[in-house]
Design a protein that fits this description.
The chain has 3 helices and no strands. By secondary structure, the chain is mainly alpha-helical. It is elongated and about 140 Å long.
Length: 155
């Protein structure tokens, strides 16, 4: 990779040229895009709004189909059932999001608790498993080469 300003070879992944200081065009930005978090309160508000507005809309549409469009009872009930199923599926999506968020928070708490327990267990296990330290190899070799003094015979 080369700097577009001065032409010096630069290491891939750098944000700025080491020679001239120019921002490199191929550098990755440090911005991390996070998905927006949905608050439980907003999910509950959406659930209530969907239910109340959905029932009101279904009721009004039933009246319009009966009075203005003069549809038969079977057609009105089929449209009402379809509308009601759509509303219930939206409620199911909101409930799923709500429980997924709650379950994710519990898993984070559980993993932190398990991490602490596992660390304590490993610390105690290592203390029991390790044998007593063995003497150094160099101690044995130096003892083998202790100077031996020949006995002098007296004349």
């Amino acid at each position: 990779m080369y700097c577009s300003s001065c032409g010096v070879a630069v290491t891939p992944g750098l944000s700025f040229c080491n020679y001239c200081g120019e921002k490199l065009s191929g550098a990755k930005s440090d911005k991390i895009i996070k998905s927006p978090e949905v608050k439980p309160e907003s999910l509950l508000e959406a659930m209530v709004f969907t239910f109340v507005f959905g029932l009101g809309a279904i009721t009004v549409l039933m009246g319009v189909m009966k009075a203005v469009l003069h549809l038969e009872l079977g057609q009105i009930l089929a449209f009402t059932l379809l509308s009601f199923l759509i509303m219930i599926s939206l409620e199911g999506v909101f409930i799923r999001l709500l429980f997924r968020r709650k379950r994710g928070a519990e898993q984070v708490g559980d993993s932190a608790q398990l991490k602490g327990q596992a660390t304590k267990e490993l610390d105690t296990a290592q203390a029991r498993v390790l044998p007593e330290p063995m003497p150094s190899v160099t101690e044995h070799t130096t003892r083998a080469f202790d100077p031996s003094y020949p006995e002098r015979t007296s004349k």
